[in-house]
Amino acid sequence: MVEPILRLDGLRKRFGGLAVTDGVSLEVAPGEIHAVIGPNGAGKTTLIHQVSGTLRPDAGRVVFAGQDVTALPLARRARLGLARSFQITAVLPGFTALENAALAVQARSGSSFRFLRAAATEAALNREARAALDQVGLGPRAGMPAGALSHGERRQLELAIALAMRPRLLLLDEPLAGAGPEETERLVGLLRGLRGRYAILLVEHDMGAVFALADRISVLVYGRVIATGAPAAIRADPAVRAAYLGEEEAA
Ligand SMILES: Nc1ncnc2c1ncn2[C@@H]1O[C@H](COP(=O)(O)OP(=O)(O)OP(=O)(O)O)[C@@H](O)[C@H]1O
C-alpha cells in the first residue's frame, strides 16, 4: 500500500469525564478525499483540532508525511504542508482577493524571494496568487476587495488561500456550512476538481456532498470510528445505518 500522507494512531482526548476522542486510528492516502461523518457531538471538530495542532491529544500519535507531529504546534505543521481551511477567518476584508492570496504565498515562501528586486518579488507573488485564484474559479474577481465578495466567493477565496500554501493535506472543516444550494453545487464542483491532486480530510454535515466527493468515509460515533470504507460500503453498513444514516435518511 502507498505510504499514507496522514496517519492517526490511537488518538485519545478527554474533556472532564467525557472521552471525546476514544482511540481514533485512521489513514489518509495521497490524493484521497477522506470524509469524517457522525452525529452532532461525535467528536469531529475535536478530532480536526488534534490534526491541525490546535489541541494536543492525551494519548496517541499524529503522523504526517512520515513525521511524528503530535507535539508540534499549528504553525510548524502548517509549514510542513498541513493546511486548514474554513472555520478560520484568514480573509482580510479590506484587501483584494489577489492581495489576500498573495499574502498566503508570501507567508509560505518566507524569504525565498529575497534575491529578487522588490518589483520582481511582487510579480512572482502575484503570479502564484493568481494561479491559486484561477484554480478556484475566482480569477475574474481578483481585483475585488474580499469584503465585497459573496458568501460563496469568500469560501472560494478561503480555499485559494489554503492552496496558495501548497498544502500536502487540506483539512476542510464544514466547507459548505451556510452555503445555499447554488453555492453548494459550485463548491462541490471545485472540491471534486481537487480530487487526486490534494489529500483532503473533510468534515461535512451535507451528506449529499460527502457521498459525492469522498473516496472513503470514516464514521465517528461517541469518539470512536465504527466504520471506514468506500461510500457504497458505508451506505450499506448496518451499524452505520443504525447509529447515524438511518435516522438521517441520507442513505
Ligand atoms: N473544550 C471543550 N471542553 C469540554 N467539552 C468539549 C470541548 N470541546 C468539545 N466538547 C464536547 O465534546 C463533544 C464533541 O464535540 P465536537 O465539537 O468535537 O463534536 P462534533 O462531532 O464536531 O459536533 P458537531 O457535529 O455538532 O459540530 C461534545 O459533547 C462537546 O460538548
- Integer-rounded radius of gyration: 19 Å
CATH topology of the largest domain: Rossmann fold
The CATH class of the largest domain is identified as Alpha Beta
- The largest sheet has its strands arranged as 6-7-8-3-9-10
Count of separate DSSP helical elements: 9
What composes the largest sheet?
6 strands, mixed
Unreliable residue runs: none
Helix content: 25-40%
The tally of beta strands, per DSSP, is: 10
Summarize the structure in words:
- It comes from Roseicella aquatilis.
- Residues 6-247 form the ABC transporter domain.
- Keywords: ATP-binding, Nucleotide-binding, Transport.
- InterPro entries: AAA+_ATPase, ABC_AA/LPS_Transport, ABC_transporter-like_ATP-bd, BCA_ABC_TP_C, P-loop_NTPase.
- GO terms for molecular function: ATP binding; ATP hydrolysis activity.
- The chain is an alpha/beta fold.
- The protein has two domains: 1-81 and 167-251, Rossmann fold, CATH 3.40.50.300; 91-166, no CATH class.
- It is 39% helix and 24% strand.
- The protein has nine helices and ten strands.
- It has helices at residues 44-52, 74-80, 97-109, 118-135, 151-164, 181-194, 207-213, 231-236, 238-248, and strands at 6-15, 18-28, 33-37, 59-64, 67-68, 82-85, 169-173, 199-203, 216-221, 224-229.
- The strands form two sheets. Strands 6-7-8-3-9-10 form a six-stranded mixed β-sheet, with helices on both faces.
- A hairpin with a 2-residue loop joins strand 9 and strand 10 (224-229).
- Helix 3 packs parallel to helix 5 and helix 4 packs across helix 5 (151-164).
- It is globular and about 55 Å long.
- The relative contact order is 0.18.
- The mean pLDDT is 89.
- It binds adenosine-5'-triphosphate.
